[in-house]
Amino acid sequence: MTIDEMRRELQRRLKRGRFAHSIGVANTAVKLAKRFGVDETKAYVAGLLHDCAREFENDELPAQADIRGIKIGDVERAMPLLLHPYIGAKMIREIYGVDDAEISQAIWRHTVGAADMTALDKIIYFADMIEPNRNYPGVEKLRDLAETAELDEILLTALSESIIFVVQKNSLVHPDTIAARNFLLLNKTRD
Q1: Which of 54, 104, 106, 158 is deepest in the core (most CB within 10 A)?
Q2: Is the model's pTM score more than 0.90?
Q3: pLDDT at residue 190 greater than cutoff 90
Q4: What is 3-190's CATH number, 3.40.190.10, 1.10.3210.10, 3.30.9.10, 3.50.30.10?
């Protein structure tokens, strides 16, 4: 499937606002990819398709995960929305014909992160937070950071902000988010 065909199929499957967000993430991911020397086509496709599983309602996500053999942990069981990146990482091959492990992994990791993220993983995680349709307190600070900071510093700030936001909502913090942040901090002290 060509990128134009992917775009059309995604637009058909997603609500208008979610599709606009996906285009915003794709375009933001390309800008970050240019800055950090990452494959721009992979960044665009991963950004475009990162939320492809958001075509399903939250209550449908556990069944969709089961169909695809995705393990559902306690945090995901309590917060099924967290399953959408894992399902999306599988759907890109099923629906969009994308058979690329790097793109799949970046989609898998775009919501909660992981230890030892690749540059593409980091770009998609961050692009999802700062794309132009996002509007929340502190987003401009993060957008400014995208222009000036190194990729690990950007990701560390993004993960920290995400954790603070989740804690302030008195919600569960995914262990992968903690692992991602700790990995960056441990490797920063080794440098």
Answers
A1: 106
A2: yes
A3: no
A4: 1.10.3210.10
